[in-house]
Amino acid sequence: MSTPRFDIVDVTHTLRNNRKTILIVSVVAAVLGAAFYLISQREYKAIGSFIMTNPLYTDRNNLFQENGIQFVDYFAGDDDVDKLMSLVEADTVKYMVADKLNLWAHYKLDASKPKDVKKLLDTYKDNYKVIRSEYNACEVSFIDTEPATAAGVVNETMRSIESIFRGYYVSQRAKMIVSLEAKINEMDSSIIAMTDTLASLRDKYKVYDIINPARQNLMVSSTHGGGAGYGWAMEQVQNISSLKDQMVADRARYTSRLNEYRTTSKTDDIPLLHITTSARPPVKPKPPGLALTILSCGFIGLFFSSIYVLIRTYYRSLIAMER
After folding, report:
1. Parallel/antiparallel/unpaired status of strands 128-132 and 273-277
2. Secondary structure letter of residue 53 according to DSSP
3. Which of 87, 198, 266, 294 is 20 to 30 A from 12 via CA?
4. Which residues, in sequence order, are CB contacts of 191 under 8 Å at separation 6+?
5. What is the mean pLDDT of residues 118-130?
6. Collapsing DSSP states into helix, strand and coil, what is residue 182?
7. Cα distance between residue 55 and residue 59, in whole Å
8. Is residue 213's pLDDT more than 50?
9. What is the pLDDT of residue 3?
10. What's the pTM?
């Protein structure tokens, strides 16, 4: 049994003979597309962009360089931007923006219901996007039916990202400040105790000479005093004095470090993200527009109606030949 012939000539004749059906389907599809576009809500896309500065530029190791001045780039490197990109997709940022802008009420959701929380995250997944360029700049976009809401989400997202990222470095420095303050207070107590002990020994045994072997630039040829226990007192004075002098020097060094950390912890006015483009409420809805929607639906109707006509004609020929 042979198959029916159905070459390009037959295809052309079939389409020409059914041109009215194809045209009607195409027009109906275009009309339906226009109607759907007119009754559907418009969506607006707001866009903002920022570039990240180097978070180590305000670090104490760079501000208080002791071994020569080393250049520190103003802008963040690839590793820092990689860390930032892991943050921009975090749910923490989405929750912060939703709470500040009250997106729960905007989307008619309840933050106490797990299903509504999932719906909010799904909404973000469909409408929220962050793109990283080859020059380590980031572009944030959000789509919503209200232009002001779309722009507000983009701007608040960039502010929230900056706040969270900067807060990490500030909190680490704050923890070091607390640790240094606790250590300095502990050293103060030890220094006071050693001072009282030395004063008691010197007054009791009349050891008023400076006999501290830790002070290498001090030369003592003789000492004054005597009596029972004088030798033991001298040894104790030397031991405690050396420990106290070292602790006083350590306390001075710790205090210097504490002042450096306090200087670098006050960076509220030094943001880590520089917003190059703030989002503004978009005027035009996102593509496709009415004309493109009509053309697209018309071409889709034309394509599928043509395929349907060709398949139907071919199978009719095949069935007729079998009979």
Report:
1. unpaired
2. B
3. 294
4. 244, 247, 248, 251
5. 90
6. helix
7. 7
8. yes
9. 63
10. 0.69
* Cβ pair 16, 311 in contact under 8 A: no
Classify burial at 1, counting beta carbons within 10 Å of its beta carbon; exposed 0-12, middle 13-18, buried 19 or more: exposed
CB 213 within 8 A of CB 234: no
Q: Please state the length of the chain.
A: 323
For residues 198 and 211, give the distance between their C-alpha atoms in angstroms, rounded to a whole number: 12
Q: Indicate the SS3 state at residue 140.
A: strand
pLDDT in tens, 156-172: 999 998 888 888 888 88
d(CA 155, CA 100): 12
Cβ atoms of residues 206 and 259 within 8 Å: no
- 44 - beta bridge partners? 144
* Max CA distance (Å), the chain: 138
What pLDDT, on a 0 to 100 scale, did the predictor assign at position 217? Answer: 46
Buried b (16+ CB within 10 A) or exposed e, 258-290: bebbbebbebeeebbbebeeebeebeebeeeee
Q: What's the pLDDT band for 154 if we cut at 50, 70, 90?
A: very high
Q: Half-sphere exposure of residue 199, counting CA atoms within 13 Å on the CB side?
A: 6
